[in-house]
Sequence to fold (402 residues):
Amino acid sequence: MKFFRYISTFIILINFANPLVAQRNVLQFSANHSATKIKKDDNKNLSANFAVLKRFGTAPMTVQFKDISDGEPTKWTWNFGDGHADSIQHPLHTYEQPGNYTVKLIIADTSGTSILSRSNYISVVAVGSCDTAAWPLQGDYIYYEIIGNGSGYVSGNNSFGNLAKASFFDQIEMESTLIGGIFDFAVAKKSMASNLPVNFCVWDENLIDKTPGDILAQTSISISQLVDESGFGWASAVFFDNPPTVNQSFFMGLQLPNSPGDTLALYTNYDGDTETGNGWEQHNDENWYPYSDSQNSWGINVDHAIFPLVCHATGISNHLLYQNMVVYPIPASDQLNILLNDPGLIINEITLTDITGRVILHKVCNTFLSAELDVSRLKSGIYLLTIKTKNHFIHQKVMIDR
Fold:
């Protein structure tokens, strides 16, 4: 859960080769945040889609799959990537062996079929110690939108044609396997005309000029998957087929999409939340610069919301990849849909509070697994959703945008 401090709107001049004005307002991003609004009633045509509540863990690992397809399918065919399949709508499947697994869902009705395949979507490791390095982000989550001389985002696609964004990570304390990373996007949009893959990379450190050097590992995820996960309010997890061993400094990041209409921007913290920011960017001349470079870049010290997944050899303790519930769409305009992970849980109460702590909505439910919340009368902004079950309280940030 990310917590936001309440601030008023203000504007800061960022010293760049061509001076830019970046408006940094934690409340503004919720109004500008754009993501796929997933609502079954919006489109009766078949469109396969699914979500899971756990994508990473030790073998054996049980995963609950949720069908969230558009339309009204009558048949489901799941291929879990490990040689097993199922034909029920919301299957529960156990992965017995370590590995990265591609999941495919085929849905059908009397008019046709729709297929969705997600490569390396589930990652299962042997018993060992895995954790997310550099988590949590220091300070508060925001993103910088460029206004004035230029457009787009400091930490994503912009009118300056940046090719890539990356974070620098100092030497890991012990030799580790870098199995993947977590990328938390503030903005994720795609054009209707394409669904191109986005490349996520690990670079070594060029010992001469201390910039990103050779690519050590790379994997790709379709931009539609990133948009969907952002729409759930989730960070995106990426896993490498051939995880590199790291025992020295490295960079992790992504090559930005370049198809018109495709836009990604990472969350960062505020300039000054960290003494030395880890943010880097690659310009359209292929040269790399740190954000702190006031002559060639932005002259600010911020960290990206990028968290490497590193594994050692003693137990497992990961706190970021397990989700207690699915809440969608995010941002929402009319209705929030809630799905819980544990089939035995009953949703007793739902409470929605604003960032000042004031209760905006309260609903008594007593329903199994799922519930709905009417938010059609709420103003745009950031809210905290609290789900009360018999023995637990579950919290998640949500956004309303209309």
About this structure: Residues 11-32+130-311 form one domain.
